[in-house]
Amino acid sequence: xxxxxxxxxxxxxxxxxxxxxxxxxxxxxxxxxxxxxxxxxxxxxxxxxxxxxxxxxxxxxxxxxxxxxxxxxxxxxxxxxxxxxxxxxxxxxxxxxxxxxxxxxxxxxxxxxxxxxxxxxxxxxxxxxxxxxxxxxxxxxxxxxxxxxxxxxxx
Length: 155
Prior knowledge:
The protein is mainly beta. The chain is built from two helices and ten strands, in the order H-E-E-E-E-E-E-E-E-E-E-H.
């Protein structure tokens, strides 16, 4: 992997990944990034990004994919800890051949996957985080395991 690209992607480790479904039903997932792997890299593109997550959540009461609102601000933990985003099937906000498939805005990486009708926002470790007091965590879920591992590292 190109060292500059690796250094850039490494700034997102410890940050959060948000996936917004743009269909009428809509959905929002948000989790903490543990790893980012480039899959199917070629000389002209990095193909897909595979995100490994420490923990993951799903918004409850998603109001509208067009307004970007979570109605009640509550989340629930889920156990899916991987997400693969195909940048080859992505476009920018404005569908134009002159616009990139992947955008950087205010230190965020934004990928619009037109095949899945999703917007993927990758936040750096320095960005605002999901409020943990708004999440219904599973007693023995991934977040509990992550917290236990972090406590062991501090010893």
